């Protein structure tokens, strides 16, 4: 019975002690010590708990260190990519000086971006032709229209041989050029990006919101960063000038091969610039499809090499010269269905004064430009389908080579005008 009482949590055993002189009972300190001793007797020993707490502390410290390292590495990568981008301040200043002449934006939230492939032959690019001291030409120019709802993107190629009204521009040394009617790509050689933008705006009436200039090596590196892009050749290619030797059939091109493929002119197809632009459009569509289907845009590990390659060779206006700006642009496009990423060439035909040059087909070209300005949809189908329907309608719309189906050629007009072109979802080996 005594043992039961002493083990009871509420009545610990007390040793005989003299009464407290002040209060006539056992000392309070002695009672507290005894109570504490009785309580600890029934708790687990402290020995094993101490190492566990130390392990938790070290784990927390290690995790904190890793977080700091990751944050530091992330910041370093961000700054590296951000620093790769070159800002074209001279073009921005030139455009600002001519602001009153530029068209006003019409469709809110829609964006028009001019993509320029630089044809400079200096430095690393000298392997692709004669080094002429670093002069530049716009080898490829595409007006990319992003719909305000970001549910479609339309890329319109502007032929380099297209005859156009080129305004008075300023050269690199500040001299003013004369206004002239000349080959379109000479605008880039005369007055750089700003002159090209003003020429496009004068031709189309479309306000160019941003621009990007990318050179040969940047294109190659981007293709390599996505592990190649698939194409389909009807015949084998052997082109020494383009550094290209490929078999026929479906195959995947690396960056070097891809560059030769999109630039080759005499050795593929009929040798025309029209065929070359069509090939460029289909290749860009395949590149977009590769990036979306393989989850590149959503995978930081795979996206970084693409961004690194792109930013190293990218020159943009101040509105797109940071990684954040480019990310916002890509994020807005990543949900666009590949079949809604469309490619076409502006309606044109052989220039009446020189068959080796082009001129716009009117009013077809102006109708296209109006739809882009007002953010209205256009549709594209393979050239074979356009030509087949036009043949049944006595070639009422395409006998001049415009590639557009007119309203008169079909008893049931489509909701949007239809042009010859392709989209990013097309099979490269399709018809």
Structure characterization notes:
It is a single chain. This protein has 431 residues and is of the alpha/beta class. The protein has helices spanning 2-7, 28-41, 49-84, 89-97, 186-204, 216-225, 255-263, 273-293, 300-312, 323-333, 364-373, 383-392, and strands at residues 86-87, 111-118, 138-146, 153-157, 163-166, 180-183, 210-214, 229-233, 237-239, 244-246, 249-253, 314-316, 341-345, 348-351, 354-360, 379-381, 418-423. Strands 1-12-7-2-3-4-13-17-16 form a nine-stranded mixed sheet, with helices on both faces. Strands 5-6 form a two-stranded antiparallel ribbon. A two-stranded antiparallel sheet has the order 8-11. A hairpin with a 6-residue loop joins strand 3 and strand 4. It is globular. The termini are far apart. The relative contact order is 0.11. The model is unreliable at 1-31, 33-37, 128-135 and 389-414 (pLDDT under 50).
